[in-house]
Specification:
CATH superfamily of the largest domain: Gcn5-related N-acetyltransferase (GNAT)
CATH class of the largest domain: Alpha Beta
Distance between the termini: 20 Å
Number of domains: 2
CATH topology of the largest domain: Aminopeptidase
Strand order of the largest sheet: 1-2-3-4-5-12-6-11-10-9-8-7
Strand content: 35-45%
Largest sheet: 12 strands, mixed
Length: 250
Amino acid sequence: MTGTAVKTNLKDILALRALFLQETNFQIRYNAVHERGWSDSYLLRIDGKDVGYGSIKGQERNDRDTIFEFYVIPPFRNYASSLFRELLSASGVRYIECQSNDRLLSGMLYEFSRDISSDVVLFEPYSVTEHKILDSAVRRKRDDDPVFEHTVEPLGDYVLEVKEEIVATGGFMLHYNAPFADLYMEVKKDCRRQGYGTFILQELQKECYLAGRVPAARCQIKNVASRGTLIKSGMRMCGFMQIGNVKKHS
């Protein structure tokens, strides 16, 4: 059988990508890259049949130098390595980046790249917690709320109010593959280490589900405080963002 990788338009891979999303069934960090026009698409073919696709993005720059999605339908998955080799040749990329919970692309990462590293950990919901803060309420932010200055995260749609003081804000981003959404929050600097981050994340998960979405999150591996807060709020680590340099003459 002859395998090829042919550059194409996004619309030509959508049916295959729907299969990819159904099979993986987790939040895709770079999902919005496609709709924002930041990716190139390749159809993967065996003897002229479309059996998969690959997607390329820029690694913190405009040119397309990183494979970040790769999918082959199950009946042809034994040809995954040869198809990936064709994708590397056709695209000329320098990097492979993937989520460790994406088994197929992770396999390609370890087969075709070197110097693999990770700096982001991924989270998924795990358990229901019942943390409580006295004299507190998590509610929708009002236009006239006196919100503290933010230095890391955006100003969220929700606030945590404790004894009439806003001590934390947060929300969830909806530009990920449905039904997933990405949680974020920030606690006022002089109010940290009091359980407010854990509490607002717990309540944001409820709001996320009520909005018809499944909560997910991510943070830097070195951010031990954020990792602990996410775990205490009922989430668990489910993977890592990994990146490697493509081996020469692969």
